[in-house]
Amino acid sequence: MTTGTKSLLFGVHQFIWHPITVWIAWIWLFRKLPTFRETVCIIVHDWGYLGKALMDDEKGIQHPEVGAAVAGKLFGPEYYDLCLLHSRHYADRVSREPSPLCWADKLSIIFEPWWLYLPRAWMSGELFEYRANSAKTGEMPIFASHRNWYRHSQYVLKNIGLKKLSDVISSKYLTDDKERNLS
């Protein structure tokens, strides 16, 4: 069984639990419930990991295309993009900004206790790929404990999500100020 399939069945991207944490992160980040269509996108956005040997290789990076195809077929191009651009790597590759789903997806890790995340990541094999990637980039040494790696990952991804929240709030106030000046 491939790492991607294991991830969806019982790993980090488990098809029930991961969408729940992303849905919670969406509410926390955007201060509103996702719409029905956004909720469907939250559910399907990682389905493309099915059958992928690795999470972050060339084929793994293409995983958003499957969820995007489902969302696009059901709801049109806006929701196609919401799923397709949930991956920062994919968005960079196509020279586009990541979608709001990207930020909720990244932030979802803060709603996962280590004792729930790490066993799933270990069983699926994702933990070893993620740890190797962190060591390769110099982000976290390979000899650090799994818990320390996880705490660091939570910290990094939380800050990415909080930066986006700050951008959302700033743009809202800038837009409100412009509208006030026009009236």
How is this structure best described in words?
Helices cover 70% and strands 0% of the residues. The protein is mostly helical and 183 residues long. It has one domain. The longest helix is centred in the last third of the chain and has 37 residues, at 146-182. The radius of gyration is 17 Å and the shape is globular.
- Domain count, please report it: 1
Specify the biggest β-sheet: none
Rg from Cα:
17 Å
Low-confidence stretches: 173-183
* Percent in strands: under 5%
The residue fraction in helices comes out at 55-70%
Helix run count: 11
What is the structural class?
A: mainly alpha
**Coarse shape:** globular
The separation of the N and C termini measures 61 Å
Please, what is the average pLDDT? 90
Count of strand segments:
0
Order of helices and strands: HHHHHHHHHHH
Quick recap:
With 183 residues, this protein is mainly α.
Helices and strands in order, then pairings?
Elements lengths: L2 H8 L6 H14 L5 H9 L13 H4 L2 H12 L1 H8 L3 H6 L6 H8 L6 H11 L1 H11 L9 H37 L1
Helix pairs in contact: 1-9, 2-3, 2-8, 3-5, 5-6, 8-11
